[in-house]
Amino acid sequence: MRKIVVFGLCMVFLISCKSKENSETNSDSSISHELRIIKGEVVDEKRKKVAYAAVKLYLDENDCMSAYTGDDGTFEFKVDELRIKDQSHFEIVYKGYAEYLLSLRNHKEETPIKLSKKGKVIPAAEYHVFYESIKSCGRK
Questions:
Q1: Which residues are CB-contacts of 121 (< 8 A; sequence separation ≥ 6)?
Q2: Of 15, 16, 81, 85, whose CB count within 10 A is highest?
């Protein structure tokens, strides 16, 4: 009788461990979504890399992310695929250049984003306000 009880307890223990392992695997896969890495490069009209440009990625009207170009003019976003919508777009601002808007679906990573001095040029003060304001994007 004792052997049967010990055997039964061992089976219950093994089954509970196995089911816990399966539930952890399932919950991990439901939590982690596919991340998409979006890269870009910002240049001026002479194809010179633009450092410290402020890049805002609007995922929808209530969701955004921010980045700044490095010394090499590049930026990168790691975005959950589920957050990307049809209306997702970039807004790129740098002092002395016109604001640049680009739809995410029209963005090609191998093609640099070229800023222009044609149009409404952003003054330094306005650039600094934008630069600081986008830091709050993505914080919920």
A1: 96, 97, 98
A2: 85
